[in-house]
Amino acid sequence: MTYVGASLDDGHPDTELPSLSELWAKKYIAKLKDQDALLKTLGEAKHRVDIAQKLTELLRPISAQAWHKTESLLSDEIRRHNISSELIDPWAISKDVHQVYEKALLAYANRLPPQRLSVAIAADMGTIRQKHTVIDPRVIGFVSMQFHYCGQMLASQVKGAEKTALESYFKVVDDHLYMPLHRAYEAAANCTYDAPELKAVHHLLPYSSQIAADIVNMVNQLHPTYTSYTGHLSNQIVRTSSIRDVEMFQVYLWTCVLEQNIAAIQQELFPLCVMLYPRLDVSWDLVREMLHLLQKAFSKYGQPQDTESYQPYHTSLCKMFSAEVLA
Fold first, then answer.
1. Residue 294 contacts residue 250 (beta carbons within 8 Å)
2. What's the CA gap between 270 and 289, in Å, rounded?
3. 8 Å CB contact between 116 and 106
4. Of 318, 292, 321, 298, which Cα lies nearest the Cα of 310?
5. What is the pLDDT of residues 255-310, one digit of tens each?
6. Alpha-carbon distances of 216 from 193, 247, 266, rounded to whole Å
7. How many whole angstroms separate alpha carbon 185 and alpha carbon 161?
8. Can you tell me the distance from the alpha carbon of 56 to that of 102, in angstroms, rounded to the nearest whole number?
């Protein structure tokens, strides 16, 4: 692929997304403002083009390595959860990985803001999630880990400030795979303008990243010696994944609020966590602590009238992850 002058749109007209997607995209702008000084010191545009070209050439072998790592991690869980191996198509997943990361690298090479990448790939990522989960939603665990490991391995090829910049694009991909963002957008589009559920989400969604970071900081302070499969909670990779997971819980919760049913959590989030967390050495006590802290954060950042919209689903979420269910 040639990166100079290439376009993310591939000749297709822009698709107008519901305002919820714009709200999510704005969060990327807010977070990136703190990195403005760093971004100004990045290398010349040609340097990014060279990096993107190199990583594109490495996509195929790195995707194969990521597949091996994902399979090693989850093969036993696939059998344990009785997920049909026929639903996990390595060629289809690898094709999706290649196409999505090509777009991410293209955005990086052309210095497009990550929030623009988020909007540009939203529909595609929604289609990918739907394609791989239409028969069994639990397959998203395998697909998301494949994408995640591929992004990690690609980023490991780059050093310094460029690695930091590149990771902001790969985070967009991770977010769309782990979180049902497109499903939330569609649910929001089906709400009336003055629906209390939509208002509650609009009040709290802009703070989701701050809430996630605050909760991870608090958990890290309470459990400074805790170690997961990847490392200590203070490890940057673990911290980034932990923040993403707290955001993931919030997005699943908001999806349920907007759809006014618990299906997204029951069919996707809970099975996903039961499959992945034991393998990643994530304690259920930490999950329960996170859910408790989420409740406090919602009270802090939301409006009093929002409680009625989200409380039933948060209560159900807490019951599903309770010690009575998951020791």
1. yes
2. 16
3. no
4. 298
5. 999 999 999 999 999 999 999 999 999 999 999 999 999 999 999 999 999 999 99
6. 33, 11, 24
7. 33
8. 7
Residue type, 29: I
User: Token pair 């990327």 is at which residue?
Assistant: 28
Instruction: Give dist(CA 116, CA 233) in Å, integer.
Output: 30
Prediction pTM value: 0.82
What integer pLDDT is reported at residue 230 of this predicted model?
82
**DSSP string of 120-140, one letter each residue:** HHHHHHHHHHHHHHSS-GGGH
Q: Which CATH class is domain 189-327?
A: mainly alpha
Residue 284 in contact with residue 268, Cβ under 8 Å? no
* Domain 16-178 architecture: Orthogonal Bundle (1.10)
Tokens matching residue 23 = 């709200």
CA distance 254 to 256: 5
**Are 23 and 202 spatial neighbours (Cβ–Cβ below 8 Å)?**
yes
CA distances from residue 82 to 74, 190, 195 in whole angstroms, order as listed: 12, 35, 40
- Looking at residue 112, its amino acid is L
Separation in Å, CA 26 to CA 33, 36, 101: 11, 15, 22
CA distance 159 to 141: 29
**Least confident stretch, 78-87, 240-249, 287-296, 306-315:** 78-87
The 8-class DSSP code of residue 268 comes to: I
**pLDDT in the model for residue 42:** 43
For the chain, residues classed under CATH 1.10.490.20 are 189-327
